[in-house]
Amino acid sequence: MSAPAPARRRSPNVPLSIAVIPGDGTGPEVTAEALKVLAAVAGSEGIRYELETLDWGGERYLRTGETIPPGGLDLLRTKDAILLGAIGHPQVAPGILEKGLLLDLRFQLDQYINLRPVKLLPGVETPLAGRGPADIDFVVVRENTEDLYCGVGGYLKKGTPDEVAVQQAVYTRKGCERCIRWAFDYTRRRNSLKKTLTLVAKTNVLTFGHDLWWRTFQDVAKEYPDVKTDYNHVDACCMWMVKNPDAYDVIVTTNMFGDIITDLGGILQGGMGVAAGANLNPDPGGVSMFEPMGGSAPKYTGTDQINPIAAINAMAMLLEHTGHPQAGARIDRAVARVTGTKMSSQAAGRMGHGTRAIGDLVVAALAD
Ligand code: IPM
Ligand code: MN
Predict the structure, then answer these.
(1) Closest C-alpha residue for ligand 1 atom 8
(2) Are residues 256 and 290 in the same domain?
């Protein structure tokens, strides 16, 4: 990516310390390719690093009943970054691993930015007719610790015909302000010609929570006179992302809307085989987590058919955000070369190569 965030390494003199959570399904396969690319780029860039692999995920949960084991968070707090493969196991009920592992990590480590680039790489097919890489290159900054994701709510008269279920969205001034301020900084740093930050919300209906977002956005905007601002309701944003994706530079939005529009963004950029995201805690000492956006794709497990590009892109983001932007940019260039010249599709099983071969092609392209 063109705009690395300031480095969050604790010390430049010790090896980069990365926790690796390969997770479930195809998570370990794509993680292996990301680590292969890390090994290659670290060798040529002179980056020293150490890995600690953690067996957290569905299998461990089925065996022990634990999602994050005791002491797990403290262990992660000693790391410079986390690489996560995928979470989701067919024998574990929906919600357990998502809430107990993925969301809990985001919340407990206060990773309040979910940074999701939407960039169409060369050679990658988008479902948008007549559009190419020049048209699709924007970034979504999704708030990552509040909103409907807080788990605030409850039932009344559960299981009866009179049942009531309440699920509340929680927004705080602190929570939206730190996200909005980070998004302004990022827009400034990204330095695209548009230099525009668009707030995406639903102020016409969510007249309390999104009014707080709106007022905070206006307040913080005063500190960034060089950044242009815009506003879209989320429904209109879905329309514009399809119709005029080239109009966007950076979008800042709430957790739930960010979840939804980044799946739309993911498909615009060629699908979950490509889309990566960073869960950032940008505060001093904060530990950030990098992941391919796709799930564990159980049906492809062990078949060497899943696309590792998203995980490799996540590794590029990890390096950019831990003080190695040149290594991240090298991976970005290598990936673009591979998608542009070597892959027939980004869909699992139709890439023209296996998972491991794609990793090898990216490693080879690093040397170009
Ligand atoms: C994502 C995922 C998660 C989310 C799920 C798995 C809890 O969809 O990272 O976008 O909703 O944030
Ligand atoms: Mn999602």
Answers:
(1) 259
(2) no
Segments forming the whole domain that contains residue 93: 1-112+276-368
Are 221 and 314 within one domain? no
- Distance CA(364)–CA(197), nearest Å, equals 37
* Owner of token pair 């940074």: 115
Q: How far is the CA of 263 from the centre of ligand 2 (A)?
A: 6
User: pLDDT tens digits for 161-191?
Assistant: 999 999 999 999 999 999 999 999 999 999 8
The pTM score is 0.96
Query: Do 130 and 263 sit in the same domain of this protein?
Result: yes
DSSP 36-85: HHHHHHHHHHT--EEEEE---SHHHHHHHS-SS-TTHHHHHHTSSEEEEE
Nearest ligand atom owner, CA of 88:
1
Residue 185 to residue 67: CA distance in whole angstroms? 35
* 40 and 83 inside one domain: yes
| CATH at residue 217 | 3.40.718.10
pLDDT over 70 percentage in the chain:
97
Q: Is 135 a catalytic residue?
A: no
Pocket of ligand 1 (CB under 6 A): 98, 102-103, 259
Q: Relative to the CA of 255, which ligand 1 atom is closest?
A: 12
Domain boundary among 221, 250, 269: 269
Indicate the residue among 226, 251, 269 that finishes a domain: 269
The answer to whether the Cα torsion of 24, 27, 29, 34 is positive or negative is: negative
Taking only the tens place, the pLDDT of each residue in 13-70 is 799 999 999 999 999 999 999 999 999 999 999 999 999 999 999 999 999 999 999 9
- Residue 147 in any domain: the answer is yes
Q: Are residues 252 and 175 in the same domain?
A: yes
Alpha carbon of 366 to ligand 1 centroid (Å): 31
Residues, beta carbon < 5 Å, ion ligand 2: 259
